[in-house]
Amino acid sequence: MGRSRSRSSSRSKHSKSSKHSKKRSRSRDRERSKKRSKSREAKRNRRRESRSRSRSTTAPARRERPATPPERIDIFGRTLSKRNALDEKQRKEEEERRAEMERQRKIRQQEIEEKLIEEETARRVEELVAKRVEEELEKRKDEIEREAKLAEEQLRIVEEQRKIHEERMKLEQDRQKQQKEEQKIILGKGKSRPKLSFSLKATE
After folding, report:
1. Cα 162 off chain centre by
2. CA of 64: how far to CAs of 60, 69, 71, in Å?
3. CA separation for the pair 46, 69 (Å, rounded)
4. For 107-152, how does the pLDDT look when each residue is reduced to its tens digit (9 = 90+)?
5. HSE-up of 2 (CA within 13 Å, CB side)?
6. What is the DSSP-derived secondary structure letter of residue 1?
7. Would the pTM count as exceeding 0.70?
């Protein structure tokens, strides 16, 4: 019996303490929500005040515009504002013209440089080729001289053969000429006839 009473009393105490803690937490939440709402309201009021101040400061500035001064006229009867605009236009045109001239000058300069580079490259290639040819000629100098002596010998042999051929042709022509003359003589003898002579005897 004693144990049951102690248990019931402890349960009642625990329930009471939990109720008190819940009440405290609720009151704290209410205070926090009140503080939040107050801070939000204060921020809204500050924003409204800043907007009203900015409007009050900008309104007179818009209303109070400085009056435009009267246009001045130069000796040619043109207003200075128009003259300034014309001068500005001429200045821009002059700058554009100078920029175009500079661009054309750079293009010409680039073309000249490219041409010089091409000429220098071609000259170096020619020098390299000439050097290689000279080296090859030096290497084959003996062979070329030997081939040249052989060519001279071949020319001499060809010349001798030509002379021999000419002699043979001349002999052949002489032989044919002699044969023709002999044939003419033979034919001439065959055609010739003996002459008949008539003599009259004297009467005694």
Report:
1. 65
2. 6, 15, 21
3. 42
4. 999 999 999 999 999 999 999 999 998 888 888 887 878 888 888 8
5. 0
6. -
7. no
